[in-house]
Specification:
mainly alpha, disordered C terminus, single chain, Sodium/glucose cotransporter, about 625 residues, globular, 2 domains
Length: about 625
């Protein structure tokens, strides 16, 4: 391979450091502000879910910033640069994800009055299922956070000279600081600020890059000639890394596992003051997702147009593809004081928002699933201090896990692989409980085990035996325009690395282990759902009388043209369409109100007459409770 002279790129100036440091100062300041503002609200409910009084705007920005992390800011443009603009198809996946989350999963979680999504699993199944899902979530979140912290720090270290571990620990310390002080409100409002910084960073790159290319028309011309605009590849081969089907279908399942049933997302949605605000937050968040994805795609196309004749990755100017974007930024903005610092702040904004949301969600889950179960009668002050201590604990743990992330490859694939491996089975588990009233706890545990096996097996196998180079090669990358160190050697390198000599590969390595990483989630989902249903029927399906109607949204309800008779049959005995249930929901009784011991009619009427309870007065027309209340003998609607 030829050796090339590395052109000099800009370096950080004092103004860049000032801009970058301002991000950390403002983020920490928001935590201090909410610590002072909410100092009299010392309940864990206020700290972990913002007192359920958040509005849709900041929650929407927070959701976008949390999942459009530095993984997208750095990895997205790199994907487009190497593989083309098919990355834009994720916009289709996001649309389906948000609709399903808002209309299927959110209503169930919001009306349940839960703080942790895994509380739902105990209400629907039992404690064993809840614990198993909690362990899976903690594993998923810690692994993912390690990638989010380490990968951008490594890329920025090797390009800008930022100290690697200084970046890692600064990120962890700042996130832990404002999470611990301000709780969920600090996380949400800091995310909103960081979302603005992310968009500004992208716009700076897009404007300057377009100017240097001589306008957007040149960008389109170069990208088309380089096959970067061949977006729709409808090949059905599951071994192809990115096709329309892998991104649209696999991407939908992967991101639905992130949005639909993930504690970090649902926690912020249920912090809204009404279900309507929660849904609006999700749909506004969809617009934010589209904006970030479009910015990432256009940044990748501009970067390709700029390096079309001298690819810095192939030429050896950088050591990893994830460094392409920061290298590009330093080259085009290095002479403009403050602007490189703005982009670095953009990348780290994504990291800070994701890590902060993860720390807050982990603290919430641990508090609800472990601490509260062991010590149910703690004072508000003690519970708040324990919640803050958990934020510190998980801040340290997530920062430490960044060390393991160095072995996980490209950050986009690593992040989505983790979400697919863990999120797919979890999505199947929650879907089993919400969509199928007949599912029981044995089927839930068995289905989860099958789903985990089906998603982890090809993922671990693919890590040990990577797919053949022919399946993962990027599109054409040229070094014809680079200046060689040895002028007698004018060869052009078309591949970023030499294809290594093939070693022994087991029989499944070219098929099962080479499946696209975006299919890990559908495999886990289908395995968990189908196995859960089969095991439930074999072990004896749950009778509807034991399932609260507010905990399910049966699949038959998704098809409004089905008859009422068939719907009732599919509810497996769960009360369906009862007027008293509808009236009860209209009067604001949550599912948690149904677990109390049934009072006598005289006792209930006394409470009613005192104005402490609002139900139709006709409920008191008989002397004894009867089945029209639609509940078992130990509960009351």
């Amino acid at each position: 391979m030829a050796e090339f002279a590395n052109p000099s790129v800009g370096t950080f100036t004092v103004w860049d450091y000032v801009v970058f440091a301002s991000l950390f100062v403002i983020s920490s300041g928001i935590g201090v502000f909410f610590a002072i503002k909410e100092r009299n609200n010392v309940t864990s409910r206020e700290f972990l879910v913002g007192g359920r009084q958040m509005v849709c705007g900041p929650v929407a920005l927070s959701l976008t910033a949390s999942f459009m992390s530095a993984v997208t800011v750095l990895g997205g443009p790199s994907e487009v640069y190497r593989y083309g603009a098919s990355f834009i198809i994720f916009c289709i996946a996001f649309t389906f994800v948000i609709i399903l989350t808002a209309e299927l999963f959110l209503p169930v979680f919001y009306k349940s009055g839960i703080t942790s999504t895994y509380e739902y699993l105990e209400l629907r199944f039992n404690r064993v299922v809840r614990v198993a899902a909690t362990v899976m979530y903690i594993l998923q979140t810690i692994l993912y956070t390690g990638v989010v912290v380490y990968a951008p720090a490594l890329a920025l270290n090797q390009v800008t000279g930022f100290d690697l571990w200084g970046s890692v620990f600064a990120t962890g310390i700042v996130c832990t600081f404002y999470c611990t002080l301000g709780g969920l409100k600090a996380v949400v409002w800091t995310d909103a600020f960081q979302m603005v910084v992310m968009v500004l960073g992208f716009l700076t790159v897009l404007i300057q890059g377009t100017i240097l290319l001589g306008g957007s028309s040149n960008m389109w011309k170069i990208a088309g000639k380089g096959q970067r605009l061949n977006i729709f590849d409808f090949a059905v081969d599951p071994l192809r890394r990115h096709t329309f089907w892998t991104v649209a279908v696999g991407g939908t399942f992967t991101w639905l596992g992130i949005y639909g049933v993930n504690q970090s997302t649902i926690q912020r949605c249920i912090s809204c003051k009404s279900e309507r605000h929660a849904k609006m937050a999700l749909y506004l968040n969809l617009l934010g997702l589209w904006v970030i994805i479009v910015c990432a795609v256009f940044s990748g196309l501009i970067m390709y147009g700029y390096y079309v004749n001298c690819d810095p990755w192939t030429a050896g100017f950088i050591s990893a593809s994830d460094q392409l974007m920061p290298y590009f930024v330093m080259e085009i903005l290095g002479h403009l004081p403050g602007l490189p610092g703005l982009f670095v702040a953009c990348a780290f904004s994504g990291t800070l928002s994701t890590v902060a949301a993860s720390i807050n969600a982990l603290a919430t889950v641990t508090y609800e699933e472990v601490v509260k179960q062991c010590f149910p009668n703690m004072s508000d002050k003690l519970s708040t201090w324990i919640s803050k201590s958990l934020c510190i604990l998980f801040g340290v743990l997530c920062t430490s896990m960044a060390v393991a992330a160095s072995l996980m490859g490209g950050i986009i694939q690593a992040a989505l692989s983790i979400h697919g491996m863990c999120g797919g089975p979890m999505l199947g588990l929650f879907s089993l409980g919400i969509l199928f009233p007949c599912a029981n706890w044995i089927g839930a545990i068995g289905g989860l085990a099958v789903g985990v096996t089906l998603s982890f097996w090809p993922a671990i196998g693919g890590f040990i035996y990577p797919a053949p180079a022919s399946k993962t090669l990027p599109l054409h990358l040229s070094t014809n325009g680079c200046l060689p160190l040895n002028t007698s050697d004018l060869s052009s390198t078309l591949l970023p690395t030499l294809i290594p000599e093939e070693k022994y590969r087991p029989p499944l390595s070219d098929s099962w282990y080479s499946i696209s990483y975006l299919y890990y989630s559908p495999l886990g989902f289908l395995g968990s759902l189908i196995a859960g249903l089969l095991i439930s029927f074999i072990s004896g399906p749950t009778h509807g009388a034991n399932v609260k109607p507010s905990l399910i949204r049966p699949v038959c309800n998704l098809f409004c043209f089905w008859s009422e008779k068939f719907k009732k049959m599919c509810w497996f005995g769960v009360l369906h369409g009862e007027k008293n249930i509808e009236a009860n929901n209209e009067n604001g009784l949550s599912d948690n109100d149904l677990t109390i011991k049934m009072p006598t009619r005289k006792e209930l009427k006394d409470v009613y007459n005192q104005g402490a309870m609002t139900v139709p007065s006709t409920y008191f027309s008989e002397q004894q409770p009867h089945s029209n209340f639609g509940v078992t003998k130990n509960a009351y609607f």
